Amino acid sequence: MSLQAKQERRRKFAEDLAKRQGKDVEVIVRENALPCLPAKSLLKFRVVCKDWCQLIATPFFTHNQSHKFRKMSGLFHQSQMGGLAPAFIPVDVAAYGVPDPSLSFLPVPVNIKSSTNGLLLCQGQTGEKRYYVCNPVNMQWKVLPKQTCDHGSDPAVVLVFEPSVLNFSADYKVVCAIASVEFPDATEFEIYSSEKNSWKLSREICFNQKVVPTSGLYVDKTVYWQSSRAILAFDPISEHAVTHGAYASYRSCYIEMNGQLCYGSLAGKKLSVYPANLYQNTMPMNMYGSKPKLDVVVDILSPGNTSGARDYMGNREGAQVLPSVSGDVLVFKTGGTITSYNICTKQFKDLHKSESGQDYFNGRFFAYVNSLVSVSSI
C-alpha cells in the first residue's frame, strides 16, 4: 500500500469515527492522535492554533503522551573519553529530536548512566559526582540526594520509570548494584525513591555475584544486569533478586522488544534477536502468563539493503548490536556506520556514517523515547 493510500485510509477512518461519536474530525484527532505522537512533533504542532498550543502545555496531556508514546526515537551516545559531552542519534531526524543533545542545561558536565521511557539518569563528571534525572525535551531536571553507600567509580546504576495512566504523579526509582562490604564477592542493592526523596539499602544480598556495571537494563518492571556468565534480575518493588543462566557474548547485547528481555547477536552476515527465556526458570517475579514468541533473523547483506552496513564484512572489528526498545526498530553498528532496521517495513537506514569509515563511537549507547514527561511533577 502506498503512502498516499495509507493517508487516505486514515482520513476516512477519522471521519467515520467522528460521525459515530458525533464529534468534529479535529476533536477526534486532538483527543486520540496527538497523545500518540513524539515530543518533537508536538512542540511543532503548538503553532497550528491557540487551542492546540494550550492543550499540549497542560499537565494532563503531558501525562497522557508519556503513557501512550513508547516508540524507539533514537540513541544517546556517551563517549568513554573523559570530559566529552553526550550526543543524540535520531532514528528519524524530522520526527525525533531534543533541543540540547549535549545536556548543557544541567549545572555540571555529566555522563549518561541510564535511559528509561523518556527520562535520563546522569552522573556529574567532577566533584561529588551527584546523580541527575532529566528530560532532554523540556530540559527539566532534578539532582538526587547523595547516596549513603559507595557506588564505585563506575556505578551499576539503572533508572526505573514506568508511566501509569492511573497514577498522575508517577514515581521513579534508581537502583544501584553495589559490592557488599561485609560479604566478599556478594552484591547488594541501594535504592532511591522519588516519592520519599531518599536512598535506602535493600535487605536483599546475592552471594557469589558481581555485575558488569555497564550492562544494566530495565524491562517489564525488572532490572537486569549481566554477571559472570549469568543474568542477575532484581524486582525494585518486592526487592527480590534471582540469577538466570543466560549470557550475552561479544558483539551482542540484551535489548527490549515488546516488553520482553531479548538477546541480540551479530554474527557472520546475520542479525539475530530472540527471547532470553528467563521465564523458563522458577521465578515469582512478574509472572503474567506466557510471553509472545519473538524470533527475528535479518540478513544484513540482503539485496534490499542499500545502507553502509553492506560493508559489514570489511568492518568486523566494529560490529555490534546496540540497545533498542519497543520492538519496531533494531539498531547495529558496523565499523563507522550505525544502521537501523525496521521490522515492520523491512527497510535499512543509515543513522550515522563516518566519512573515513573509522569507528569513533567507542562508548555506551542508550535507547531513547521522545517523551514530554515532566520531571518537576514526579
TrEMBL record:
Residues in the signal sequence: none
Pfam families the UniProt entry points to: b-prop_At3g26010-like, F-box
Segments forming domain F-box: 36-62
InterPro entries in UniProt: At3g26010-like, Beta-prop_At3g26010-like, F-box-assoc_interact_dom, F-box-like_dom_sf, F-box_dom
Annotated F-box protein At3g26010-like beta-propeller domain residues: 112-230
SUPFAM superfamilies per UniProt: F-box domain
Name of the protein in its database record: F-box protein
Taxonomic source organism: Coptis chinensis
